[in-house]
Amino acid sequence: MRFDSGIWFKAPSVCSDSLGMQPQHTTRLIGLTPMTIVPDDVIVIVPTYNEAENLEAIATAVRAHGYRLLVVDDGSPDGTGEIADTIATSDEGVAVLHRDTKAGLGKAYAAGFARAIELGGEVLCEMDADFSHDPADLPRLIAAIEEGADLAIGSRYVPGGGADDWPWHRRAISSGGNRYAALMLGFKVKDATAGFRAFRADAIRRLRPETCDASGYAFQVEMAWRASEAGLKIAEVPIRFRDREAGTSKMSPNIAIEAMGLVTRWGWQRRFGNSANR
Ligand SMILES: Nc1nc2c(ncn2[C@@H]2O[C@H](COP(=O)(O)OP(=O)(O)O)[C@@H](O)[C@H]2O)c(=O)[nH]1
Ligand SMILES: [Mg+2]
Fold first, then answer.
1. Strand order, beta sheet including 2-4
2. Which CATH architecture has domain 2-271?
3. Model pTM score
């Protein structure tokens, strides 16, 4: 594990069993508080909007680790919510939060975190339903929390990470957005837009996601920024992001515009006024 100006990341040589290397012993860093985690402590929150083709497989993959699953469905017209209910009926490790209308990824996660805390989760993960995030990588994120991180980010922009099969324009938006966020907000997180994460429940209580400005993907940046401003320990764990095979992306120009506008506003506030932890 390397410590890099406040953010530490696990270099591939110490953590990447899914990259074909043997896991090795990692050194404990001074100032970190390790925690012991059993699978039932972990709740993986998966927001869904029209993910009928993916849900059963993603649920099976999460439950294979013994982690609990919380699906947050925003009234998907394709029946994703009903599929989630059917899975939950036969598996008590699966819960479903239904919301009436599509209100954005950020709002879905804020509601999901609140429910996951009510359900007694100690480690709360964020993961997409579409296999862009490999459920096989979840144990590495959780291991980083176990070793002392408050927030572990599955990162495309640390050595060993990447988004190989993304079209060039998605890569440009993602890497440009990350650079812009780092510049405006003055933080060291390399992949602040990433949606594959694990948080300690205590970190979520401190960061109060329900008070975030962002409704869309800018939520990820806002939470990473809040975590950084609050002095939480952030680990970036390399992951290979894959493009979805089934279903369609909900990314839209409006979501990108919201993110750009908010990051610009926060950057101005940071220089001339309020801080992130409003
Ligand atoms: N509940 C909920 N889930 C959403 C919403 N927008 C996107 N998602 C889910 O968030 C995850 C990421 O969205 P996706 O469309 O794959 O974005 P992309 O990977 O950036 O193209 C997927 O599991 C989506 O189903 C929303 O408004 N509400
Ligand atoms: Mg996706």
1. 2-4, 7-9, 234-238, 151-155, 197-200, 123-126, 42-48, 68-73, 94-98
2. Alpha-Beta Complex (3.90)
3. 0.89
**Residue bearing the CA closest to ligand 1, atom 18:** 249
Structure tokens at 177: 């957005």
- Strand 123-126 and strand 197-200: the pairing is antiparallel
Which residue, judged by its Cα, is nearest atom 14 of ligand 1?
Answer: 249
SS3 161: coil
Distance CA 47, CA 53 (A): 14
Task: Give the ligand with the smallest distance to the CA of 128.
Answer: 1
Residues with beta carbon inside 6 Å of ligand 1? 47-49, 51, 72-74, 102-105, 108, 128-130, 132, 244, 249-251
* Residue 43 Cα to ligand 1 middle (Å): 18
What is the distance in A from the centroid of ligand 1 to the CA of 273? Answer: 32
Comparing CA positions, the residue from 135, 140, 134 lying closest to residue 153 is 140
pLDDT in tens, 54-113: 999 999 999 999 999 999 999 999 999 999 999 999 999 999 999 999 999 999 999 999
Break the chain into its structural domains and give their ranges: 2-271
